[in-house]
Every structure is written in C-alpha cells, then in structure tokens.
C-alpha cells in the first residue's frame, strides 16, 4: 500500500512538472481574428478600450518608448505622411508615465490627428499580448480587424499604406 501511495505521489509530481511548461506561442498568433482586449489611459487623462476602435478602418497598434530613437523617427515620419494615412486608425501605446507619453505626442504633433490615440498601457496588456521585445513594435489589422502583419522593430509609412488597402 505504501508503495502504491509513493508511486502515486511521484506520478502526480511528474505530471505537475510537465503541466507547468510555458507556452511559447504568443497570444496574437493564436487569435489573429481580433484586436486584443485593452484599456489604456489617453494623454487627455481619459480611458479608452478596444471596443472604441472604429470597425470600418484598418488599425495599427504601435508599442513605443518615448526615449527610443527609432520610435521618434517613426513618429516624425508618420506625422509628416498622415495625409496619406488618414484612413488608418493608429493606437500608439507606451508603458512610460503619462507625462512622458504626453510630451512625446506633443513633440511630434500627434494629438492634432483624429485618427490617432496616444496612451499609456497601465496594465501592460499590449506588450504581454504581442510579447514585445523591441520598440517600436507594430501590428497592422485590416478593416475587419484581422491581423495582417506584425513588425518587431517597426516599418515605414509607405509599407503601411500599401498593406492597409
């Protein structure tokens, strides 16, 4: 009887250890038919969530750092080409404190565009969902909000314009 109990405990421990293996597939690769659920704090100090994103427009989610040189270059380029990207909805998200995110938006005049949200992701939902390693990280969704493509280190405006059609 003791041997059976001992074998049962060993089996249970082995099963438990096996069950704790980490999932190596990022959530966005398992569900490419939806924009991730999130609630973020906009630079105007109001909250917005994924349900508020327009359903009839392509969407680009950009995870950025205000201190990142590539993020600054991207913001400058996108700001200058926004006339050509007016039909794309942008969600710029950072984990940095809101004053730094607000300063970034101001520096690149991002708040003037009605198709851009700039916000702080207090819950770290976006980088967890995409398993972001570098900034700027970008995810492009089509008008139906199905994932088209992701870029671990961003892309240029012309590529987005071409793929968003």
Automatic annotation (TrEMBL):
Domain of life of the source: Bacteria
One short Pfam name that applies is Thioredoxin
Q: What is the species listed in this Swiss-Prot or TrEMBL entry?
A: Parafilimonas terrae
**Name of the featured protein:** Thioredoxin
Keyword Signal listed: yes
All residue ranges annotated as the Thioredoxin domain in the record: 29-165
Q: Which residues form the signal peptide?
A: 1-19
Q: Which PROSITE patterns match?
A: THIOREDOXIN_2
UniProt keywords, alphabetically: Signal
């Amino acid at each position: 009887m003791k041997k059976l109990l001992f074998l049962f405990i060993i089996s249970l421990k082995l099963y438990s250890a096996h069950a704790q293996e980490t999932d190596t597939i990022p959530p966005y690769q398992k569900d490419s038919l939806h924009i991730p659920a999130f609630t973020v704090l906009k630079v105007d100090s109001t909250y917005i969530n994924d349900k508020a994103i327009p359903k009839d427009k392509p969407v680009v989610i950009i995870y950025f750092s205000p201190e990142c040189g590539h993020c600054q270059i991207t913001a400058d380029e996108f700001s200058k080409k926004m006339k050509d990207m007016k039909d794309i909805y942008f969600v710029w998200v950072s984990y940095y404190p809101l004053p730094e995110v607000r300063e970034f938006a101001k520096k690149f005049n991002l708040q003037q565009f009605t198709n851009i949200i700039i916000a702080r992701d207090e819950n770290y939902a976006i980088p967890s969902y995409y398993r972001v390693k570098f900034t700027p990280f970008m995810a492009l969704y089509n008008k139906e909000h199905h994932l088209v493509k992701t870029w671990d280190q961003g892309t240029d405006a012309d590529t987005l314009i071409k793929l968003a059609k």
